[in-house]
Amino acid sequence: MHQLERVTNLLTLLLSARRHITFEEIRHELRGQYPDGKEAARAAFERDKAVLRDEGVPIDQVTLSGQQAGQTGYRVLRSAYEMEDFGLTPEETAALRVAVGTIRLGTNWAREALWKVDLALGSNESESTSIAVELPIDERLPLIHRAIAERRCVTFTYRSLQRQLEPWGMLARDGWWYVIGHDLGHGERRTYRVDRIDGSVKVADPATAPMPVDFDPRSVFPSDPKLLPDAIDVGAEDALVRVDASDASVVLYQYGEEAVVKRHGDGSIDVRVPCSNVQAFVNWLLGFVERAEVLEPEPLRQLVIDWLAEASGAS
Amino acid sequence: MKRQANRPINVRLRRLLVMLPWLQERGTVSTHEMAAHFGVTVDELVADLTLASLCGVSQDPRDLIDLYVDGDEIHFGLPKYFDRPLRLTAPEAFSLVVSAAAARSLPGSDPDGALSSAIDKIARVIGAENVSGFDVELEAPDGIDELRDAARRRAVIEMEYWSPETAITSARTVSLFEVFVEGAHWYVRGFDLGRDAERTFRFDRIESWTDSGRADSRPISPRRAWFEDADDVQDVSLLIDAGWLWVLDQYPLIESAPIDDGQMRVRLVVTSERWLERLMVRLGPHAAIESPQHLRGLGADAARRVLARYERT
User: Fold this and answer.
1) Does residue A122 contact residue A114 with C-beta atoms inside 8 Å?
2) Tens place of pLDDT for every residue, chain B, 313 residues?
3) Of B92, B132, B284, which is closest to A109 when you measure between CB atoms?
4) 3-state DSSP call for residue B27?
5) Smallest CA–CA separation between B6 and chain A, in Å?
6) Do the Cβ atoms of A180 and A191 come closer than 8 Å?
7) Is B34 close to A247, i.e. CB distance below 8 A?
8) Mutate to test the interface with B, among A25, A84, A92, A118 (most CBs of B within 10 A)
9) Smallest Cα–Cα separation from A273: which of A288, A284, A264, A286?
């Protein structure tokens, strides 16, 4: 017998039971389906239960009294198993359908949710939306989300260090997911990028530190100075950059006409661009290769020259 | 019937538990329609439903799940066990709510419309704490709406497109498929009529565009992974200081692994040496090309060129 058949039989039995039933009763009802030996049968039953629980089937488990005292009884309550009715209108389910077609999470979870929410949904529904959002998620996000909802602590490894965080909220920005919360090891608020967590996230003890009222992850972000490594001071918040005519329109798109300090006869422009995060500035500037040049401030210009000299092997 | 190739039992069970109530809702349905809806082959569908029809609390026919497959049709009889789907799992509920919240923040979405009322109704059942606790920021630049509308009309547009590798702006004629955002950037995907191939354009590099007045009806192909359609792809391996990996954040990596001394080895897909050159200048002294060997000097050469500009002034 295929395990899928046995698991399905087991589920029909647990759903139909009017009281908690024991393993021996299950084995009797599903006779011929579990291995003969008691230990092998027990092991197979444990595997079946694990399959059901992993799928989210709420198996209720109690220690029985009376004639079956001490034995474990199992049952699936229909009220806990069955999908609730959200009472959605056809317009609302249609909007969800479009949302699921538009937001590409890179997993099948949203689609499976939609199948459950909208039993009337047919296969011919077009979900072409002309607009799409790539927003990949992985199994760690629902776990962190659950921890936020239940006000619990999460533990994980980040940059090779074990972290304990009481998460307050998550924010998706520029396609990355961040979790913000109270870091127990550091005793302060910290922000972590979820895809950079090494391995799995575990939901642990209830949170103890108070969470800010009406916490808004946008209001505290970016908060982590580590996102700005080796902060370098060049004595200015803005840099003056000369950009060749070929690339001028892109820079104007990014910074607007108000950033222009001077226009030259050959079409090149001098623009003021923020440089308080020097690394980010240099990364932006060098994206233009030899078609742009930082003029001021002098320490920043020197830093770029040194950078290029080192990169060209001249130092 | 074809052999069931490696479909894990949990996936088959998950499908079955949602397919049965769906089928019950309809009574009779074609195998093709049902297979298409649930993303399985007809063979897989028939195998799983046939197996389900042998299941129940006992082998008494009156206890078995009441369905049968007859040629191209599936018939469902009396409801017995699975009237409703299994409750949403945490990842399913999270994904659904994230999708709804993200879609609501897209341009053109009515903040008080059907998505909001759907989220409110879901919150009433699963709890407000399960639909909150996260925020999706999607800032659409001005002009995205118009391009999205043009894509919806299946318009062919004429655009001036700037390439960062060549610094050249060229005229392109594109039959629009969709606009999308990935990472920090918005893109336009379509069929480039001049180049006779599907292309993806970064929105902030489109200097201008106009609707040609023509529409196209070619089928919209699903989006492929980056570079899957590129002709001249190189697999490049870099050694990079771990602290500088962020420069690569927006690019897909084939793999990355730590090596000694705080360095990482990363492999990435490169379609243009000009692009790689820019990347290496941006990484400067913090990375080196390991392979292919003939590209090892690329970054240093480009850095020398940029340096020459600074020496002139």
Assistant:
1) no
2) 444 457 899 999 999 999 999 999 999 999 999 999 898 999 999 999 999 999 999 888 899 999 999 999 999 998 889 999 999 999 999 999 999 999 998 877 877 799 999 999 999 999 999 999 999 988 888 899 999 999 999 999 999 998 887 888 899 999 999 999 998 889 999 999 999 999 999 998 999 999 999 999 888 888 877 766 566 678 899 999 888 888 887 787 888 888 877 888 999 888 888 889 999 999 999 999 998 899 998 999 999 999 999 988 6
3) B92
4) coil
5) 13
6) yes
7) no
8) A92
9) A284
Please state whether the predicted TM-score (pTM) of the whole model is above 0.80. yes
Out of 2.40.50, 3.30.70, 1.25.40, 3.30.230, the CATH code matching B234-312 is 3.30.70
Closest CA to B102 of A99, A91, A220, A94: A99
- CB atoms B181 and A3 under 8 Å: no
Strand order in the sheet with A269-274: A260-263, A269-274, A238-243, A292-296
* Region of A174 on the Ramachandran plot (φ > 0 left; ψ -120 to 50 alpha; else beta): left
Considering only the beta carbons, identify the residue of B92, B117, B167 that sits closest to A113.
B92
Q: Is 1.10.10 the CATH classification of the domain at B144-215?
A: no
**Do the Cβ atoms of A135 and B136 come within 8 Å?**
yes
Verify whether the Cβ–Cβ distance B306 to A308 is below 8 Å. yes
**Burial class of residue A19, CB neighbours in 10 A (0-12, 13-18, 19+):** exposed
Contacts of residue A116 in chain B, CB cutoff 8 Å? 18, 85-86, 88, 92
* Under 8 Å between Cβ of B175 and B156: yes
Q: Tell me, what's the ipTM?
A: 0.82
Token duo for residue A299: 């320490």
Place of tokens 């922000």: A191
Cis amide prior to A217 (ω within 30 degrees): no
Contact B81 A87 (CB under 8 A): no
Substitution target from A268, A312, A315 for chain B, most B beta carbons within 10 A = A312
Tell me which chain A residues have a C-beta less than 8 angstroms from the C-beta of B134.
Answer: 145, 148, 169-172, 217
Q: Which residues pair with A133 in a beta bridge?
A: A103, B181
A48 Cα to chain B: minimum distance (Å) = 10
Tell if the CB–CB gap between A174 and B88 is shorter than 8 Å: no
Across the interface, whether the CB atoms of B99 and A96 are under 8 A apart is answered yes
Q: Which sign, positive or negative, has the C-alpha torsion B36, B38, B43, B49?
A: negative
To 10 degrees, what angle do helices A109-117 and B90-104 make? 90
CA B97 – CA B113 distance, rounded (Å): 15
CB within 8 Å: B136 and A172: yes
Fold type of domain B9-76: Arc Repressor Mutant, subunit A (1.10.10)
Number of residues assigned to chain B: 313
pLDDT in tens, A64-109: 988 888 899 999 999 999 999 999 998 999 999 999 999 999 999 9
- Residue A302 makes CB contacts below 8 A (sequence gap 6+) with none
| Chain centroid to CA A72 | 37
CB within 8 Å: B91 and A139 = yes
- Enumerate the residues of chain B whose CB falls inside 8 A of the CB of residue A79: none
Domains of chain A and CATH, by start: 3-81 (1.10.10.10), 90-134 (no CATH), 140-224 (2.30.30), 238-311 (3.30.70)
